[in-house]
Design brief:
The complex is a heterodimer of chains A (543) and B (138). Chain A is 74% helix and 1% strand. Chain A is mostly helical and 543 residues long. Chain A has one domain: Amino acid/polyamine transporter I (Up-down Bundle), CATH 1.20.1740. The longest helix of chain A is centred in the middle third of the chain and has 48 residues. Chain A is globular and about 65 Å long. Chain B contains four helices and five strands, in the order βαβαβαβαβ. In chain B, helix 3 packs across helix 4. In chain B, 51% of the residues are buried. Classes of the chains: A mainly alpha (543), B alpha/beta (138). The interface between A and B is large, with 46 and 34 residues. Chain B: Belongs to the universal stress protein A family. Chain B: Pfam families: Usp. Chain B: This is Universal stress protein. Chain B: It comes from Flavimaribacter sediminis.
Chain lengths: 543, 138
């Protein structure tokens, strides 16, 4: 057990008075420092889930896919409404007087420069999806929009967003860009911002440990230190680890497909394990070098390379079409955001349930991880600055990114209806898009490296987050613990991929996405908590 | 022989520091040396302080109390780190050079401490600097 220094001095002026001492529920076996129930329950149940899923692959897959579809199809209105609430909540906070509150107190100085901070939030927040979906999603929406609507028994059977744009290529492109940007811009970042801001506020301003349960203190009081809190933290660990491990598993297959396509490398089991081992090893080096020497450095490398690829494609690609896609895509986003985000009375149910509702569940299931990580690096920013940089800037970057990659791909399809990029499998679309452009070998190679680096930056920051949650909010736990989580994630990914293959990965990924449902309730509650907390701080003298 | 003695402290495990602190106090009195307590805190709330400022005040009070009790000068040096678990050894090395420390006394018996100091820190200091290192066991 740990013993505590009796702090007879006054506490931080705004700290919540709680009986709880950070670390009081921690145990220290073998020189570790772990939160007793959360660490044990989450690690044991993760192992149990992996084993059970592998033993009963087909039924597990059937059940979790059913659960995911049931939730995203029946609660589409709930996900879409919640997404809108998060965006509005953030914008209201940003412009209200509460926006002046500084994370860490009035005298706090930002821990990171804008560049370092932004690189870390982007690398953790979007990651690999940008690489694969940046090309494929605009094309999907473009194609389905161009195809127009199809009715069968009074219900739409097409996957087009809104009313589609039958036969009109320019309108289909704009609608496709708007729909893609909608899934990647304000809404997902508002989801992250809600979690990150509540955690940062309750931790840096109110003195509670940096873990999810803390943001429920205003509502649950001392009960957050008991089982309520254990459950919230454990589910967060669960969602994060399975989200990361299944993405790593799927991503390995995608990256190998790319390498096979480019260099003719093998895609066999040995190659899979080797690739996971390399990614995990680099992530391990990164966590051992720490937040500044590892995670931040890699995030900066990552963002610099992404910017390089973006600018490169912008110049060597169809520059005119790209600029037009960026501008008219951005305008279309602004025009269509309200119809796209309508939670009720939708006719395009395949789109709103199969795409939007799924995406929201997916982003929300990532939010404990990304939110915790963003929170940790955001001390010293004001609420206003925080929301602007976490929501508005990423939105602009997403419009640019989707415009460049999606715009190039769509212009290839418009020019040639049988362009390779149109029908290529998801993991090859990026490379098929780059192939007709000059210097394709170089850009494709850069693309593959970027995919791998995006993985590493998710894996290392994810390990730090899980380590902090399972250490009861301590960020100073022994290094051995983050090594454990980082390795564990790689092992889970490798075992799922080798023993179970796509069925097991699909099952557990569907499970991770399903946690988006309870977490939506958690996030809505966070909005209330955060508002109450900020208002209290605003009123208190000296704040 | 010694002018500046440094003792790295983890205030969350104060009772386990007693022997190292007593050793430092005795040597300090004997050589007329100043004793420097160095504590490293993260920016997030921890067991010792909710904020880095609060941590700093706690460490200063701890040093003042020791100065009174042991009759030898203890000074507090609170360092803030984004990632204390990995930056600790570098911070101790840098700080010991800044202060001009000629002896480092560390406790080794605290769980977690073992990992932090003996495997990385004491070893790191022994390898990387010319300062004498005294590891005090339980």
């Amino acid at each position: 057990m740990t013993d505590h220094v009796d702090t007879s001095i006054e506490e931080a002026p705004d700290a919540i008075e709680t009986e709880y001492h950070i670390g009081q529920d921690n145990i220290t076996p073998f020189g570790l420092d772990i939160h007793n129930p959360v660490f044990m329950i989450s690690s044991i149940s993760i192992v149990a889930f992996v084993i059970l899923t592998l033993m009963f692959q087909d039924s597990a897959s059937e059940f979790f896919v059913w659960l995911r579809d049931f939730l995203t199809q029946n609660f589409d209105w709930f996900f879409l409404s919640a997404g809108n609430i998060f965006v509005l909540f953030c914008i209201v906070l940003m412009v209200s007087p509460l926006g002046k509150i500084r994370l860490g107190g009035p005298d706090a100085k930002p821990d990171y420069t804008y560049m370092g901070w932004f690189a870390m939030l982007f690398a953790a927040g979007m990651g690999i999806g940008l690489m694969f979906f940046g090309v494929s999603e605009p094309i999907s929406h473009f194609n389905s929009s161009l195809g127009g609507t199809a009715l069968e028994g009074g219900a739409r059977t097409d996957w087009a967003p809104l009313g589609a744009a039958a036969g009109d290529a320019a309108a289909a492109r704009d609608l496709g860009m708007a729909a893609t940007i909608y899934h990647w811009a304000l809404h997902p970042w508002a989801i992250y911002a809600v979690v990150a801001l509540s955690l940062a506020f309750f931790s840096f301003n109110r003195g509670l440990p940096l873990t999810l349960r803390s943001s429920f203190y205003p509502l649950l009081g001392e009960r957050v230190w008991g089982w309520w809190g254990h459950i919230i933290d454990t589910v967060a660990v669960f969602a994060t680890l399975f989200g990361l491990a299944t993405s790593l598993g799927f991503g390995t297959q995608q990256a190998l497909a790319g390498m096979n396509y480019l260099f003719g490398w093998s895609t066999g089991d040995f190659a899979k394990v080797l690739l996971i081992a390399v990614i995990t090893a680099i992530a391990l080096i990164s966590v051992l070098r720490g937040l500044d020497g590892g995670v931040k450095l890699l995030s900066e490398v990552n963002i610099a390379m992404a910017a390089l690829l973006l600018i490169f494609v912008m110049i060597i690609g169809p520059t005119g079409d790209i600029f037009s896609a960026i501008i008219s895509g951005g305008v279309a986003y602004a025009r269509e955001i309200i119809p796209l985000s309508m939670p009720f009375g939708r006719e395009d149910t395949n789109f709103s349930q199969g795409w939007t509702s799924f995406y929201w569940a997916w982003w929300i299931s990532w939010s404990p991880f990304v939110g915790m990580f963003i929170a940790r690096v955001s001390r010293g920013r004001t609420v206003r600055e925080f929301i602007f940089c976490v929501i508005i800037i990423p939105t602009i970057v997403c419009i640019l990114w989707m415009g460049v990659f999606g715009g190039t791909a769509i212009s290839q399809v418009v020019a040639n209806a049988s362009a390779a990029v149109k029908d290529a499998p998801l993991e090859l679309k990026l490379f098929e898009m780059l192939r007709p452009l000059p210097l394709a070998t170089f850009t494709s190679f850069l693309g593959i490296i970027l995919v791998l680096v995006f993985f590493i930056t998710s894996s290392d920051s994810g390990s730090l987050v899980i380590d902090t949650i399972t250490a009861g909010g301590k960020t100073s736990a022994p290094v051995a613990q983050r090594v454990f989580w980082c390795t564990f994630e790689g092992v889970v990914a490798a075992v799922l991929l080798l023993v179970g293959g796509a069925t097991a990965l699909t099952a557990l990924q569907a499970m991770a996405v399903s946690t988006g449902f309870p977490f939506t309730i958690v996030l809505l509650t966070m909005c209330v908590s955060l508002y109450l907390g900020l208002r209290e701080t605003r009123k208190s003298p000296g704040a | 022989m010694y002018k500046n003695i440094m003792v790295p402290v983890d205030l969350a495990h104060e009772s386990r520091l007693e022997k190292a602190l007593a050793t430092a106090a005795d040597l300090g009195r004997h050589y007329g040396a100043e004793i420097h307590l160095i504590g490293v805190t993260g920016v997030t709330p921890g067991a010792v302080g909710h904020t880095p400022e609060e941590y700093k005040r706690t460490l200063e009070e701890f040093a003042d109390r020791l100065s009174r009790e042991k009759g030898v000068g203890f000074q507090a040096h609170a360092e803030v780190s984004h990632d204390p678990a990995v930056e600790l050894d570098k911070i101790i090395e840098r700080k010991s050079e800044e202060i001009g420390v000629d002896l480092v006394i560390m406790a080794s018996h605290v769980p977690g401490f073992v990992d932090r100091f003996v495997r990385s820190n004491a070893g790191y200091l022994v390898e990387h600097s010319s300062i004498s290192v005294f590891v005090v066991r339980g």
